Amino acid sequence: MHNQVPSDPFQQPATPAAAPPPFPPAPPQPFPPAPGQQPFGGPVAPGQYPPGFGGDPFAPPPKEGTNGWAIAGLLTTFLVSGLVGAIFAVIALRKIKRQPQRGRGLAIATLIIAGLQVLFIAAIFAVIVVDERRDAAAGIDDVVVTDLKAGDCIRDFDGTGAIYDLPTVACTDPHQAEVYHVYTFPEGSYPGTAKVEAESDKRCGAAFEPYLTPQTENMDIYYLYPRDDSEWRQDRSISCVLVAPSATLTAPLTK
Question: Which ranges carry the Septum formation-related domain (predicted)?
Answer without folding.
Answer: 149-239
